């Protein structure tokens, strides 16, 4: 048995109950890492199941009331879960899905478990689920981290001020944690375990969605969920787009982004797998590889650090003191334009670039990363108060973006208001918070081409 299969820093013991040797199976509570490969928590669970000579059962809690989630998010997630279930079956592992709050569902699923292992999430609700389950489970609950390359508390023991303070800490640890996840075979199949009366079938996603009491006002987008689709897009990125990434990544008229964020959000692909594919690529442009790793590891894990150590990550109170003070000082400044949340939501502003960004979000579930910065800055400029702007930006992003409602989204919105940034020259409304203008965007890329690209998409979908 390979006891060092997973770095020990990835493992935490959430309660101190003794292992129940008379149980029927070991339980892996899959919640954040929704994949059957490159998953530290899954492989660690298989290892422990083999040691205890038990089959492994995978449990997923399908809550119908995840904050701000809607049909767009559920469709994408369930497509991935259906694929994951099929891959687990090929490995001799049964996956049981229960509709309801995951923290109570896992207690039901663990009634015959010797031990439970769970993956890790960083948001308030994800941490609360694990804390509550740890108190109520009849067996031990161990946690294995697989959604970041460097475990959060190993990278830093406090909230970091910005990327420049976290970057050197990450770099010192990369060699230790940038190693492949070894896949091991379960020694005992769980496919013949008797079914639970509460199991939910995943074979017909459309029928399942119809029965779920979820918000159905936001339709799905033309983007398929699942690990295989994520890997296909990653192959295209590494072989065709990566050499041009550093040159054109801020130009939304050039299709050079990896499109990994929705798949990372739902845990359908491993950030470690992506990182190793990029650093080992023979793309002939090392600066592009370095720039992408900066975004994937340093910036993404700075966001995880933010939501983990700052309990106010989803509110105005998360901002650093300097930005809070300067925005408050300028909160009464005259706004040339003021838009209601309804006007913003339906892209009814005077700014064609902003409208195009919002339409892209409505129709595709994403905005090009560079344009999304401008999108957030303009909401600040066109709202009655910075507090109202913060609320609107989070609302629109979390409602429509496939990668909304996660650490990256909370950090991204907060960045528009000064988080993880520095003070700039003072100006009306923004104070010392970084300003972005239409003229500045026009110097970066052909804005009219981007607007036309989005309008063409609108016409295609209207046919």
From TrEMBL:
Domain Photolyase/cryptochrome alpha/beta: residue ranges: 24-152
Keyword Nucleotidyltransferase tagged: no
Coiled-coil regions listed in the entry: none
EC identifiers of the protein: 4.1.99.3
Pfam families assigned: DNA_photolyase
Name listed for the protein in its UniProt record: Deoxyribodipyrimidine photo-lyase
Lyase as UniProt keyword: yes
Cofactor annotation: (6R)-5,10-methylene-5,6,7,8-tetrahydrofolate
SUPFAM superfamilies: Cryptochrome/photolyase FAD-binding domain, Cryptochrome/photolyase, N-terminal domain
GO MF term set: deoxyribodipyrimidine photo-lyase activity
Keywords attached to this entry: Lyase
Organism: Thermatribacter velox
Enzyme class: lyase
């Amino acid at each position: 048995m390979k006891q060092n299969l997973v770095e020990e820093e990835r493992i935490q013991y959430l309660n101190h109950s003794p292992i129940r040797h008379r149980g029927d199976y070991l339980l892996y509570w899959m919640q954040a890492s929704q994949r059957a490969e490159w998953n530290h928590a899954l492989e660690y669970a298989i290892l422990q199941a083999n040691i205890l000579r038990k089959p492994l059962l995978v449990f997923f809690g399908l809550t119908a009331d995840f904050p701000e989630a809607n049909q767009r998010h559920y469709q994408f997630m369930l497509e991935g879960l259906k694929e994951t279930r099929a891959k687990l079956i090929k490995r001799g592992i049964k996956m049981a899905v229960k509709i309801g709050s995951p923290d109570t569902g896992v207690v039901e699923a663990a009634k015959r478990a010797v031990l439970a292992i769970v993956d890790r999430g960083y948001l308030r609700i994800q941490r609360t689920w694990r804390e509550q389950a740890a108190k109520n489970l009849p067996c031990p609950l161990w946690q294995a981290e697989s959604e970041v390359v460097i475990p959060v508390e190993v990278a830093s023991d406090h909230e970091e001020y910005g990327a420049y303070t976290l970057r050197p800490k990450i770099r010192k640890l990369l060699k230790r944690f940038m190693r492949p996840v070894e896949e091991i075979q379960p020694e005992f199949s769980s496919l013949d375990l008797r079914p639970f009366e509460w199991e939910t079938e995943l074979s017909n996603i459309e029928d399942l969605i119809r029965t779920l009491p979820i918000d159905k006002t936001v339709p799905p987008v033309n983007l398929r969920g699942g690990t295989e689709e994520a890997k296909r897009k990653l192959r295209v990125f590494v072989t065709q787009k990566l050499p041009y990434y550093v040159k054109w990544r801020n130009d939304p008229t050039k299709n050079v982004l990896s499109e990994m964020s929705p798949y990372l959000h739902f845990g359908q692909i491993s950030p470690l797998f992506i990182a190793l594919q990029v650093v080992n690529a023979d793309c002939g442009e090392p600066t592009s590889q370095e720039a992408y790793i900066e975004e994937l590891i340093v910036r993404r894990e700075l966001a995880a650090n933010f939501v983990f150590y700052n309990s106010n990550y989803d509110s105005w109170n998360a901002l650093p003191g300097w930005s809070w003070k300067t925005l408050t000082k300028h909160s009464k400044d005259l706004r040339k334009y003021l838009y209601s949340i309804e006007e913003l939501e339906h892209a009814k502003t005077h700014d064609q670039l902003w409208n195009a960004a919002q339409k892209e979000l409505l129709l595709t579930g994403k905005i090009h990363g560079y344009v999304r910065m401008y999108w957030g800055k303009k909401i600040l400029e066109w709202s009655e108060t910075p507090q109202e702007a913060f609320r609107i930006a989070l609302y629109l992003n979390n409602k429509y973006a496939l990668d909304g409602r996660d650490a990256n989204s909370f950090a991204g919105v907060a960045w528009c208001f000064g988080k993880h940034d520095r003070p700039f020259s003072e100006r009306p409304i923004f104070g010392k918070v970084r300003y972005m203008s239409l003229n500045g965007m026009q110097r970066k890329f052909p804005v009219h081409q981007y607007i036309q690209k989005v309008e063409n998409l609108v016409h295609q979908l209207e046919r």
